[in-house]
Structures are given as C-alpha cells and as structure tokens.
Amino acid sequence: MPELPEVETIRLGLKRLLPGRKFASFEVLDSPKSFPNPVSEVEAFLLGSTVSDVRRRAKVLLIDLSTGYTLVIHLKMTGQLVYVQEGMGAKRIQQDHEATVRDTSSRVDPSLRFGGGHPTDSLIDSLPDQSTRVVLRFADESTLFFNDQRKFGWIKLLPTISVPEIDFMKKVGPEPLEAEFTAADFTKRIRRRNGTTIKAAILDQTVLAGVGNIYADESLWMTKIHPSIRVRNVTDDQLADLLGNIKSVLQLSIDKGGSTDRNYVDAEGRRGSYLEFANVFRREGQSCPRCGSEIEKIRVAGRGTHICPVCQVIQ
DNA sequence: CACTTGACCTGTCCGC
DNA sequence: TGCGGACAGGTCAAGT
Asked: Protein footprint on strand C: which nucleotides are under 7 Å from a CB?
C-alpha cells in the first residue's frame, strides 16, 4: 500500500527526526530476507554512523549515512517505519525483546492497525510487536522499527554511490511531481505500452514512478477513462489530462498524510486521511460523486479496480 | 519482445 | 464455531 504519497509522508517525518542521530545497535528479528546484508558489513558501515539525509526515489526510501553508505528501504505492501523517542519502546526491547516479539498478539489492539483511528501512543507503546522485522537503535536510545506483516519489504545497506546503479533505479521512470516531467514526456513513455490497458501502463514503474492501485483508480476516475481501455485508444489530450490528475491526486494525498487503508502509518505512527477524500477507491456500492451512479469493483491488470460505470465508458 | 500471470507472505473476511 | 478459500497489492520471475 505505501505508494508515492505514503513513502513521501514517511520521508518528511524521518527527515525531521533522523539527521544527526548515530546508530548504536541493530537486531533482525526475522529471517535475514528483511535485511540480508552480512552482520559484519552492517557493523562496519551502519554502527557508529550518523544520518546525513533522508531521500526518496519512487516508492523507495534512502537513508544516507556519514560512512558513505545508504539504507535502501522498500516497504512493499505492509511495511512500516516507525520512529520512537527514547524511553518508550526502546527500553522494553533491552529487557525482554524475545518474549515481547513472540507473544504480543494479545496485547496489540487490532483496531489500531486495521481501521481504528486510535491515538499514536497505542502503536508506539506496543512496539516491537509480532510484525517487527528489524530494530535500529540510536545512541540516544531512540529507535527506528521496521515492521512488515507480510514480509515483502526489505532493507539493504549499500554504498551511496552504487544506489543509482541498482536495477530498480536504472529502470524506474520519472518522478511525477517534478515540474520537468511534462505531458509530452509522459505520452512518449506510455506509448511504449500501447498494447496494454491504461491501468497496467500507469502502474508500470518504468513508465512513471510511484503510482499504485489507489492513485491509479482515482486519477482514471478523475479523467473519465475506463481502466480497461488500451493505451492506443487513449488520445494525447486525454493522456495530458491524466498526467495532470495523477499529479494533483498525489499532491493532495501528500497534503493529507497519505492513505491508510489497512495498516499504513507515518514515521510517528499516525494514520493518513486521504481516503476520506477518495472518490472511488474502496467505495464500491456508494454513489459516484460526479454523476450519482453506483460505483463498481471490477478486475483489471490483475488488481481490484474501482470505477464509475457511467463516467468511465469503454469507448 | 510485449504482455500476463503467479509467487512471495500473513491476516482478514465471507460463506458453509 | 471452525475451516477453507478468496482477497489484499508492489515487484520480479516465469510463462504465453
């Protein structure tokens, strides 16, 4: 679920919280898949380093270190990065992290993660929990928790200069919110996918960066384009409108702190409110805000897809 | 090559 | 009540 606005919201929080802090210790509480670097490498280039910057490219977070290394982090669907100030979760780890990690299901309020809107403190107090994969502790005893219920996400420690050379960075398309990314650029790139559906094309990270299922559905609704239409049947003018709507929907979501559908939270454990403003996503059975027709959920590009069947016509 | 589908995971929800 | 299966969706590998 973390798409561009969610990752950007986390970045803004970490950028405020982390620079200058020194890494003191780390623990991987799960299979090494979550953080596959050899322990010796992490000890050499993470421990003792200070955070110099927090960046984002597409849906990837980049935490730059004074050692010339970077923590490259992908949250995939259910990943969370939550920073806890000294004296809270951090103390409990030192006391009994084994027991805490293995037996927290009864203590974690499910409504906090899956739709409650409870205060931030509840989540922070409960960390680490059964979804915690990596614990990064700073010298001031504050802690950064990497939680990931479904274990798709990962952290990799890489030399900063090598980050642009990893496959994902070489292939990923332009940042949609950069002013230099124009409709002409977008049209040129997306026409390479003329044979596929417009939804599959805007989800393709090599066409443009950062759009996932939520913002694909929202931007297509705004542009009155049916997600199943082939790219070749979408006009250049429609593509220009679509890019404008992608930009505005992403920016609105950043302004609202992102979308919390199930378990997204920001760097301080707070939920995002964008979905209150969504027009179609997860609103099947409700009325289209534009024409009043009933919103439907269909399947396009292998994804659950939300449309207004009247506004978004297949030609 | 272009495109689609399945795998990776775990928790939730729905129907029987 | 418990149980099986569908579903959630970012990305890559495998298949068509």
From this structure: 7-12
